[in-house]
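TL;DR need structure tokens for one chain.
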Amino acid sequence: MSEQDNPEISRRNNVIGIWFSSLLLLSVATCVLIPHLPTKGVCYFRDIWFLRSLWYQNLTVFDQFKQLWHSNSEQCVFFATRSMLSLYFANIACITAQISRAEGKRPAWRGWPWMAIITVLLIGKQIFFDGFDDQSQGYYSSMTYRTYDSINSLILKSVYRMVLFYALLTFWLLIAIDRRRNRVHGDREA
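>> reply
TL;DR here they are.
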């Protein structure tokens, strides 16, 4: 039976399509609506640690960002938009990993140690070394946060980091689900 004739695969593809469409719609709505919401409500994402930490890089740039030229409402929009987008991406990563997993026992993927090294290097750089850098040169400089960037530019540069982070998270969730399933199915067969 081909993939097109399998109702389970067709249903999964439809659900994944709906979730990704929802992500796109919510992301656009968030970026458009948050600047128009009352500043007091939006500033909760900057002022309350838990809401600010919905995107981990908010914690690393918080002290630097307070000293920049952006207004109070722009700072609040920056933190609120990044936190909300991160929340959407996290939900999509978990849902995608759960829905897209294939049934049955599959052989273990042997490339995961290299992917672990890549993940640690990329995410480690984002956690410990990603901040505002006006002296950056080369290709990467277009994705570097700069002190003179507008709020929209900073948010766009954040989306790149979120996509990378949550793509890696989805990958690792799929590996964990497969390893658990293989272990459970292996126990039943023994």
